[in-house]
Design goal:
By secondary structure, the protein is α+β, with helices and mostly antiparallel strands. 46% of the residues lie in helices and 16% in strands. It has two domains: 126 residues, no CATH class; 73 residues, OB fold (Dihydrolipoamide Acetyltransferase, E2P) (Beta Barrel). It is elongated, with a radius of gyration of 19 Å.
Length: 206
């Protein structure tokens, strides 16, 4: 037990231990009804530039952010914990350990995303059954851009619709471009590309 605690509180594992503790505390609070599970979400904001594409590739689009965040935290923590046991603890304290810790942290985060995406992929029908919005039902709703920009080739937005917040793959039309924080309306769903065509909120309301 002492060994477990020592590793959990060592660099860089302690960073992931803290994030995992936040996730656990959130669910404990939610179980007791103090927090609303569906109305809270993980908002990566500026950091979403790089993470947005990874989340989509890992298969976490369309998954409630609270669930995705919890599983990514868990598997990232397990990865960095094992990395510390088999690699990092054998490196003497210093700049090399700091650099190795950063690299291991990035690898652990990406690994956590893909493992979580792999496990959640077959559960998407379940999310629909418990009330997750369908592609058709959210057409006309307003989402917020969370990638650096949205163009006709790439873009990510978050929809908060009173239910579980969703990560959506979005595209523009007619050469339009939107920036992070812009509010856009979901105009059309393209099943073949698994994305939504969006226009500006002001244009939609005209």
């Amino acid at each position: 037990m002492d060994r477990f605690v020592e590793i959990s509180l060592s660099y860089p594992v302690i960073i992931f231990s803290f994030v995992l503790c936040v996730a656990v505390i959130y669910w404990v609070v939610a179980i007791f009804g103090i927090a609303d599970v569906e109305s809270h979400n993980v908002d990566a904001d500026g950091a979403f530039d790089g993470l947005g594409g990874l989340l989509m590739k890992a298969g976490l689009d369309g998954v409630p952010l609270t669930i995705a965040f919890t599983l990514v935290s868990l598997f990232a923590w397990l990865t960095i914990y094992l990395a510390d046991i088999f690699l990092l603890e054998h490196i003497a304290p210093g700049i090399i350990l700091v650099v190795a810790g950063i690299v291991a942290s990035v690898v652990a985060t990406v690994a956590g995303m893909f493992v979580a995406g792999f496990l959640l992929k077959p559960m998407r029908p379940l999310f629909k059954k418990i009330g997750a919005p369908t592609a058709k039902s959210i057409i006309g709703h307003i989402a917020t851009v969370r990638s650096g920009s949205v163009t006709d080739n790439d873009g990510v937005a978050i929809l908060e619709d009173g239910g579980a917040s969703m990560i959506l793959n979005v595209r523009t039309m007619n050469g339009a471009t939107f920036l992070r924080g812009d509010r856009v309306a979901l105009l059309e769903y393209q099943a073949e590309n698994n994305c939504y065509i969006v226009i500006g909120e002001d244009d939609f309301n005209r």
